[in-house]
Amino acid sequence: MLQKVEGIVLRSIDYGETNKILTIYSREIGKFGAVARGAKKPNSRLASVSQPFTYGYFLCFTGQGLGTIQQGEIIEIFRSITNDLISTAYASYIVELLDKSTDERKNNPFLFELLYQTLKYIDEGYEPQIIKNIFEIKMLPVLGLRPNFDCCAICGNQDGPFVFSIKEAGILCEHCLHHDPHHLKVNQATIRLLRLFFHFDLNRLGTINVKESTKKELETCISAYYEEYSGVYLKTKKFLQQLDKLQ
């Protein structure tokens, strides 16, 4: 079936001497793979739309297997991402997380908007680690995970202070700390941000100003939770960790 879709290129790999296979996340049909014939040729009309992070319209034949890209029209290129190593690293992590967390041909307009807005914020110069953390939290329900950030995971107490518990998949009040001897003691700003990231509309994101200590705690909590429950292992995470050591 010939279909026009609005999508973002997640991955592009060489296929033969002149072709590429694209993995695209689209508004209409979710994630799908398609061959862009001749896209490796510099003068190909598909060369520019076959680059990772390209947002565009794609006219393609879609069937049970790989589709075939017939035409492409660029809507937006995230130039700041493609021209900056750190931004590219964070964007690569985000698209790999989406890729590994979703099945093919599962329509989800919310995820498309989340992906677009996340890449847009990174491209505009927002703090990439915080944008990544927000995206990670927003992806948890997609993975079937719903940590309790609103009240104590044991007794339901809504009054802090709280700690974060990997074992109990949420926050614990001071009366329930004994349920997890290995709980993570974090400042209350970290707890509030975890709760905020889970619930708020990313389109309403304003100015971000987070202390370095809070950034480290957010990274520790989210990373530990993902390692324990998600079953998702990303190659790009190691590269981000290496970059973090160099900064």
TrEMBL record:
InterPro entries: ARFGAP/RecO, DNA_rep/recomb_RecO_N, NA-bd_OB-fold, RecO, RecO_C. Transmembrane segments: none annotated. It comes from the Bacteria. Gene3D superfamilies: Nucleic acid-binding proteins, Recombination protein O, C-terminal domain. The keyword Transport does not apply. GO terms for cellular component: bacterial nucleoid. Residues 1-78 form the DNA replication/recombination mediator RecO N-terminal domain. Coiled coil: none annotated. GO terms for biological process: DNA recombination; double-strand break repair. Keywords: DNA damage, DNA recombination, DNA repair. Involved in DNA repair and RecF pathway recombination. Belongs to the RecO family. NCBIfam families: reco. This is DNA repair protein RecO. It comes from Caldibacillus thermoamylovorans.
